[in-house]
Amino acid sequence: MSRMEFYIVDVFTIGRKYTGNQLAVYLGDPPPALMQQLAKEINFSETTFITSDVPENGGYNVRIFMPEVEVAFAGHPVLGTAYVIQRELLRRPVERLLLNLPAGQIPVTFGADGLLWMRQNAPSYGARFERSQLAPILNIAEEDIDPRFPIQEVSTGLPFVLVPLRSLAALRRAQVNLNRLRALLGAHEAIAPAIFCAETLQPENDIHVRVLDDIYGAPEDPATGSANGCIAAYLAKYRYFGGSSLRIRSEQGYQIGRPSLLHLHAEDRGGETLVRVGGQVEMVARGQLAADD
Asked: Looking at the whole model, is its pTM more than 0.85?
């Protein structure tokens, strides 16, 4: 095996390293089995591989792996990988670039304020659930779940079960019963519950989010761009803040010591919903995978 360069970046930071969500980005196209082994070795929630430094159809081919499985789309890997492409492959400022993922081509734009933005795929809305189904999975009372809005499976490329809670206190004490979660999700495509409320730790933010234990080998996620994109679309669809469009700040990761900030834009146009998720990226480390002897 030839040597491969890799980078570690933090995505959706609060303006400094060691916040947000960690991501490993490899330059190379090893066999898929080795990609999976490297993702397991790093053991971040996701690891990406830029499989060619030559664009195809105007975009860069990228594959995303969780520790146990490859996924078609994930949020923070899109922004972190685009950051590495701009900084380490192109080595010049750009306003926009495209990533070719199994879920489709995702555009990323670079703001003058240092934020990177992804345009997510149009949301799809799946099964709804009862409070009696989710409360025991989250080890909370049914009354902790906000009855004004549905518990629903939503996807912009990676599906989650969205659970609106009444308070930050309920959100912070939630703990997943993994066996019950797997039993529920076994008949559905969603990989994890994403719970949220409009009460926040930081007064300048608008919602607090947790994405809890999924079934693919990653623990609670510090910052989840895919889930927050789903939440943004859901909030606009159901007029959570009173209107069909929103520009809000989402905080995540505080429970596990990785405070994160995500910027969410969504507009529900009836038959179409536009979703954009933005955040900051910080370079943490670069290295080279040792060749086999």
From this structure: yes
